[in-house]
Each structure stands twice: as C-alpha cells, then as structure tokens.
Amino acid sequence: MRTIKLPSGEQVSAIGQGTWYMGDRKGEATREIAALQLGIDLGMTLIDTAEMYADGGAERIVAQAVAGRRDQVFIVSKVYPHNASRSGVPAACERSLKRLNTDRIDLYLLHWRGGHPLAETVAAFESLRQAEKIRHWGVSNLDVADMEEIARSPGGGECAANQVLYHPNSRGIEYDLLPWCETRGIAIMAYSPLGHTTSRLLRSPALESVAKRHGCTPAQVALAWGLRFPNVISIPKASDPDHVRENAAAIDVVLTAEDLAEIDAAHKPPGRKQPLDLL
Ligand code: NAP
C-alpha cells in the first residue's frame, strides 16, 4: 500500500476504510468487522469513524475489528460540532476512546463547523494531544476561509488533515482548498470517493471507458483518480468483501494523461471558486 505523509512526517495508508452506516444493524456486525479486518490485511490500515456514526455503534465495530492488532491501525474519529467546546471535546473524546476500546485516537477531527469558536476547539485538541489521548488532530468540511482561521489560532499550525467530499462529480476543492492544503502539507481525506450511493458516479461512461482500458472497474478508476495528488487519502466504505479487495487493488491503477483528459471532459474541473460541497 502506498502511504501519504502527515505534517508530522508519519505515514498513513493512501487508501483507508470508511465506516458510515456500520454498526447500524445488529445482524450486519460480523460481516462489517470481517470487511474491516480484510481491509487491514490488504494494507488499508487507516480506519475512519465518528461518534455520529450509528450513534457510537461504528466506533464499537472498529474496536472489534482492530482487537489484538491496534498497533497496526491508524484510527480517525470525529467530534460533533455541538460537542466541540473546551470542555465538550475532552468529554466526547473519552466516550469515543471507551467505545473504541483504546487509549488513543490517532487523528481526531472536528466533524463540521458549528457554534463553538474554532480557536476553542483547537485549544481543546491541543490539550488532548499533550495528554496523549489523541496523536494528531484535524478538521472536516472546512473551506479555505475557515482553514485560514484555524491557521491563525494558537496551535492551529498543528492541523494535520481536512476531510472533505471529493469525487469526479464534486471537485470544487481543486480550485483552491486542495492546493491551499497541499502547500502547507495538510492531508486531504477524500470522503465518499465512490459517490456515496455510488449508482450514478459508477455508471459514468467516462469512468467505464477508462476502466475498460485498464481492465479494472469504474470504482477503481474513481479511487485512482482521487489519489493522483500527493496529499490525498481516500476512504471508501465497503462491507462487501469483494468491494474491499477491489478498493485495495485500486492502488495499482495508474491513470494516464489520456485517461484524465477523458474524465475531465465528462466531469469538468472547476474554473472558478465554488462553495464547498458537503454531503
Ligand atoms: P463511498 O465510500 O463513496 O461509497 C460507499 C458505498 O459504495 C457503499 O454502498 C459500498 O457498498 C459501495 N462500494 C464500496 N466499494 C465498492 C466497489 N469497489 N464497487 C462498487 N461499490 C462499492 O461513501 P461514504 O460511505 O459516504 O464515504 C466513505 C467514508 O467517508 C464514510 O464511510 C465515512 O467514514 C466518511 N465520510 C465522512 C463524511 C464527513 O462529513 N466527514 C461524510 C461522508 C462520509 P458495500 O458497503 O455494500 O460494500
């Protein structure tokens, strides 16, 4: 598995695993745990979760998936905006640590901007980092103006990642946010890289045509496309073991200039500033 460097110099897997909707249905737990474990075996050792997902249920699934191999895995979790105050962040973090059955979160993100001042959340993250409850912190769903506010906050230079929506039908970040982060060594974590519900994106004739040339699937093309930047981490979610295998193998798909031009023609790159797309 290729790796991406965080600002600290630590390397994480370029393709990770999402967990949204995992933990929602009891009868699916065994399958979801097995899918995450297979993904780890195949090198997708970064796992993305959140206190929001299944109301903590996804964090519990992650705990079971990484049991006995915690040191091989890089766990990302997120705090709700309404918990992102000076006292709310450490309390939420403790609850997540308990559900995750671990003593540290590798990367802790603000899920999106809410009512608490960003500087207050940053101060809380920095305290947690000093207490070694979290190893890195970052944000999610923040555009350039918010990132500049983070950068101006005391300790804001420690921001390691920004997790945002990014796939061929949603590529506004290429205009400004992505280069802004790249210049500062901040990782972009591309969420919903397969288009979330997948049906529309994965039926794109351009992706299908490129996939045919490479003898791979449109999903693998979508992942390879997102990974063409040096600071992008992709976090597809898959409960189906065939999907997990396919996603891990996407690391070997290298798109040519011809492929990228074909994708650009059908999924236009941004020509000007666009508001940040959210799911
Ligand atoms: P996604 O990863 O784009 O798509 C997930 C869907 O794709 C699932 O239905 C999955 O099916 C299917 N799939 C997976 N691999 C496939 C393949 N190779 N071929 C065909 N279909 C495939 O959507 P997402 O879950 O929205 O995004 C990924 C992760 O990003 C989330 O799970 C979450 O961790 C994170 N996220 C973060 C935010 C945020 O606000 N920060 C928002 C959205 C998502 P199966 O499960 O049946 O395999």
Describe the structure.
The longest helix has 13 residues, at 29-41. The strands form two sheets. A seven-stranded parallel β-sheet has the order 3-4-5-6-7-8-9, with helices on one face. A two-stranded antiparallel ribbon has the order 1-2. The mean pLDDT is 97. It is built from ten helices and nine strands. It has helices spanning 29-41, 57-66, 88-100, 118-130, 144-152, 177-183, 205-214, 218-226, 241-249, 257-266; strands spanning 3-5, 11-13, 46-48, 74-79, 105-110, 134-140, 159-165, 187-191, 232-234. Bound molecules: NADP nicotinamide-adenine-dinucleotide phosphate (NAP). Residues 18-20, 48, 111, 140-141, 163, 191-196, 198, 202, 219, 235-240, 243, 246-247, 279 line the site of NADP nicotinamide-adenine-dinucleotide phosphate. NADP nicotinamide-adenine-dinucleotide phosphate (NAP) is lined by residues 18-20, 48, 111, 140-141, 163, 191-196, 198, 202, 219, 235-240, 243, 246-247, 279.
